# Entry
Amino acid sequence: MTIAVGEKLPDIKLQYKAADGIVNVDKDALFASKRVVIFAVPGAFTPTCSDKHLPSFVQNVDNFKACGIATIACLAVNDPFVMYAWGKNQCVDEKIMMLADGSGEFTKKIGMELDLTHLGLGVRSQRYAMVVSDSIISHLFIDPMGSYQLSSAENVLQNI
# Structure
């Protein structure tokens, strides 16, 4: 079942690569007493994700900060090394946290898995964005399969 607005995020096992190694994300530290935007993509380095989705958030970081968003995080079912390399490739710098859901455990827990094995890509994440306050989802934007619109930075900004 897909997670919904008003629900609390489950315990998470996400990682990111920092300059000094792999960091396990502390859910409480990430979400406590602040608003966070998480947007998920089917995969790092894929066309729509690289050409549109991630760049839309990079270009709008200041607009999100002006709306009271403390952290913006990009999530994919990839390993932290791939997410780090993709972030460097996209000139993300420190603007966006590049989160890896390596085994897809978090993605499955929230019902956002997307089976792309028929394309040789395995199980990935659906394309979505959510606004989270104190671990509770306040806004959720899920794009239909093959679409990119609802989860764009511009749409999220218009609706928060």
The radius of gyration is 14 Å. The longest strand covers residues 69-76. Strands lie at 15-18, 21-24, 35-40, 69-76, 97-100, 113-115, 123-125, 128-133, 136-142. Helices lie at 27-31, 47-59, 61-66, 80-89, 105-109, 153-159.
